[in-house]
Specification:
Number of helices: 5
Oligomer: single chain
């Protein structure tokens, strides 16, 4: 279930500031264990897994993943940070206000012995494909650096720049492009 609300027309600066403020609030809520009830397309473009009992995870790991808002996919448990952290056009910086919630989430994952993460950066479809792939990798790297503050070493993080290959929204309008400038975390089976 995905809720959409009509929004009044605002100029671009107000829209960006509003999206960032909501993004910070949503990331803080996710890091403190609030679970959003939504079904969205997989940010990696993979179909959800259909197995009844996830293999490769402990019960404690599954509890933390569910509480943090991760959902099971064919490749592991995935947290799409599109609603949580958005990047501006041609931007790869994690804001200071978004760093603390990411660190808290990283520490929660480490406490239940989540040892490996895949950090996937995404872009909208504006610009050249090769540039977007580089930009999306820089976004993944920026989030990876924040996760390092939670104790994840470089050998525990797989950073991927996927460019515009897996949009979660329509790139035909500015709101959709903003949703596609994101990072997703994927937790592969741990054992």
């Amino acid at each position: 279930l995905r809720l959409q609300m009509e929004r009044p027309k605002m100029d671009a600066n107000v829209c960006r500031a509003t999206r960032r403020a909501w993004g910070v609030l949503a990331l803080a809520g996710m890091a403190t264990g609030l679970v959003a009830c939504q079904t969205t397309p997989s940010v990696t473009g993979h179909t959800p897994a259909t197995a009844a009992a996830p293999k490769g995870y402990t019960e404690a790991q599954l509890r933390v993943l569910r509480e943090a808002g991760f959902r099971e996919t064919a490749e592991g448990w995935e947290l799409g940070l599109s609603v949580k952290i958005l990047f501006g056009v041609d931007d790869d910086r994690v804001t200071d206000s978004a760093q603390a919630p990411i660190v808290r989430l990283g520490r929660q994952l480490r406490e239940v012995e989540i040892e490996r993460l895949r950090v996937e950066g995404h872009t909208d479809n504006t610009g050249l494909r090769a540039y977007n792939e580089q930009l999306s990798l820089r976004r993944a790297t920026a989030v990876g650096k924040v996760l390092a503050l939670a104790g994840f070493g470089s050998g525990q993080l797989q950073l991927r720049g996927l460019g515009a290959a897996f949009p979660v929204a329509d790139n035909a309008n500015s709101e959709g492009r903003a949703e596609n400038r994101r990072v997703a975390l994927v937790i592969p089976p741990q054992r």
